[in-house]
Design a protein that fits this description.
This protein is an alpha+beta fold. The protein is 11% helix and 23% strand.
Length: 107
């Protein structure tokens, strides 16, 4: 007998597909333009999802990790990634820059 029989797959445990209620481009220093979006409950508990890298970006499936009736889910494509521009740029793209971008999105 399979020890996982009767268990839901990880995909089956995600919340339903949702669309963003807000999508923006944030102009930050160093000539970068950072894409971010928000979905879920506009006045909900905020959570920021950070994608892996390098070069990746957020995907629509990441919107499904948190209950949209409770959370305001904020996803953004880090500098040089996904829908942020310039794509694949490593100039002015440090951990400190990433922290500044998160703070700018947060406020």
């Amino acid at each position: 007998m399979d020890r996982y029989s009767g268990h839901k797959s990880a995909g089956a445990q995600l919340y339903p597909t949702i669309d963003p209620f807000d999508q923006q481009i944030l102009h930050v220093d160093g000539g970068h333009q950072v894409y971010f979006e928000q979905c879920g409950k506009a006045d909900g508990i905020p959570v920021v999802i950070l994608h892996g890298g390098p070069g990746g970006g957020c995907s629509p499936s990441m919107r499904r990790y948190f209950d949209p009736k409770i959370y305001r889910v904020i996803l953004f494509d880090q500098r040089g990634c996904g829908r942020s521009r310039p794509y694949a740029s490593v100039e002015n793209n440090t951990t400190q820059d990433l922290i500044k971008d998160i703070e700018a999105i947060r406020t």
